[in-house]
C-alpha cells in the first residue's frame, strides 16, 4: 500500500508541475471526481490548503493526468503477471518433486517384488532339499532341515571361532539329534558350541541349552572316555568340545583345550 501511495503522491506532484487542469464542477467526468476525492485525502498540507483556497473561488478541482493512470495500470498489470509467473513456477517445482517421489516409490516396489520372488524361490529350494538331501550350498553355507551350516577352512581357538560365527549372523553349531550329528561328521575335527567354561562338568550349548534339555550326547567311548578334562597341555583343563579328535576318531565328541586351533562349524536357523 505504501508503494501505491507513493505513486499517487508522485502523480499529484507531476500534476502540480505540468499545470493544473481546471474545469467546472458540472463538466467533470465522474471518474475524475473520484480521483480528486482521493487526492484531497492524501495530499500534503500545502497542496490541501491551496485546494481549499481555490475551491472558494471557482470550485476547481485537480485531476490526474491520463498518462500517469496508464502507467499505474501498466505497473499493476506487470505485478499481476509476475505473481502469476511465480505461481506457475511453484506449481512446476511441486509437480517435479511429486514425480520424483513417484519414481522412487515405483523403484522400491520393483525391488521389493524382486526380493520377494528370490525369497520364495530360495524357500522352495530349501523345502525340496529338506525332503531329499542336505547338499544345497549357497555362498559356502549348506542348507539342511531348516538350518544353514558353515564349515570353516580356517583354524581358530574356540572363542575366536565363535566370534567368527557371530560376525556372520550365526553361532557355533548346536547338535540336537542323531541325524544332525551324522550330517556334521566329516574327515576333519571341528569346534562345536558345547562348553563347561562356567562350571566344570556342567555342559551347556551356546544357546544355554543343557544336554538334558536337548536329549542327546555323543561323547567318545573309544579309548579314553570323554570328557576327561585333561590338563597336560592346558592347566585350565579341557572346557570346549570338538566333533572328532582330529586323529583317529571323527564321529564323536571330545573335550579339548579352548586354546587349541581347530576348524569350526557355524549354524543359523531359517
Ligand atoms: Ca572341562
Ligand atoms: Ca578330552
Question: Which tags fit this structure?
Answer:
single chain, 270 residues, Mannose-Binding Protein A, Chain A, 9-stranded mixed beta sheet, 7 helices, 9 strands, 49% helix, binds calcium ion
Q: What overall geometry do the principal axes of the alpha carbons give?
A: elongated
- The CATH superfamily of the largest domain turns out to be Mannose-Binding Protein A, subunit A
CATH architecture name of the largest domain: Roll
Distance between the termini: 72 Å
Q: Which stretches are poorly predicted, pLDDT < 50 over at least 5 residues?
A: 1-5, 14-53
What can you see in these coordinates?
The chain has seven helices and nine strands, in the order H-H-H-H-E-E-E-H-E-H-E-E-H-E-E-E. The protein is α+β, with helices and mostly antiparallel strands and 270 residues long. Strand 5 (190-195) and strand 6 form a beta hairpin. One calcium ion binds at residues 226-228, 230, 238, 254-256. Residues 226-228, 230, 238, 254-256 line the site of one calcium ion.
How would you summarize the topology of this molecule?
Elements: H1 2-18, H2 30-42, H3 45-58, H4 66-131, E1 136-138, E2 141-144, E3 147-151, H5 158-167, E4 171-172, H6 178-184, E5 190-195, E6 204-205, H7 211-214, E7 240-243, E8 253-256, E9 263-269
Parallel strand pairs: 5-9
Antiparallel strand pairs: 1-2, 2-3, 3-9, 4-9, 5-6, 5-7, 7-8
The chain binds calcium ion (2 copies).
Amino acid at each position: 500500500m505504501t508503494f501505491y501511495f507513493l505513486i499517487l503522491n508522485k502523480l499529484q506532484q507531476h500534476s502540480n508541475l505540468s499545470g493544473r487542469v481546471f474545469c467546472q464542477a458540472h463538466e467533470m467526468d465522474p471518474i475524475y471526481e473520484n480521483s480528486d476525492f482521493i487526492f484531497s485525502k492524501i495530499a500534503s498540507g500545502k497542496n490541501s490548503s491551496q485546494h481549499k483556497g481555490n475551491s472558494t473561488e471557482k470550485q476547481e478541482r485537480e485531476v490526474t493526468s491520463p498518462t500517469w493512470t496508464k502507467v499505474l495500470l501498466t505497473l499493476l498489470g506487470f505485478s499481476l503477471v509476475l505473481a502469476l509467473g511465480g505461481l506457475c513456477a511453484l506449481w512446476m517445482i511441486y509437480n517435479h518433486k511429486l514425480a520424483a517421489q513417484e519414481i522412487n516409490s515405483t523403484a522400491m516396489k520393483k525391488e521389493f517384488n524382486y526380493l520377494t520372488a528370490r525369497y520364495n524361490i530360495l524357500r522352495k529350494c530349501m523345502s525340496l532339499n529338506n525332503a531329499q538331501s542336505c547338499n544345497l550350498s549357497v555362498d559356502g553355507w549348506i542348507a539342511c532341515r531348516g538350518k544353514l551350516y558353515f564349515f570353516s577352512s580356517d583354524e581358530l581357538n574356540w572363542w575366536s571361532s565363535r566370534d567368527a560365527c557371530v560376525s556372520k549372523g550365526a553361532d557355533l553349531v548346536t547338535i540336537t539329534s542323531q541325524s544332525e550329528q551324522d550330517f556334521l561328521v566329516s574327515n576333519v575335527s571341528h569346534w562345536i558350541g558345547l562348553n563347561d567354561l562356567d562350571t566344570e562338568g556342567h555342559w551347556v550349548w551356546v544357546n544355554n541349552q543343557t544336554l538334558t534339555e536337548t536329549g542327546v550326547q555323543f561323547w567318545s567311548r573309544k579309548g579314553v572316555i570323554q570328557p576327561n578334562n585333561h590338563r597336560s597341555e592346558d592347566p585350565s583343563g579341557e572346557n570346549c568340545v570338538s566333533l572328532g579328535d582330529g586323529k583317529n576318531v571323527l564321529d564323536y565328541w571330545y573335550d579339548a583345550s579352548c586354546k587349541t586351533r581347530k576348524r569350526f562349524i557355524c549354524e543359523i536357523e531359517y
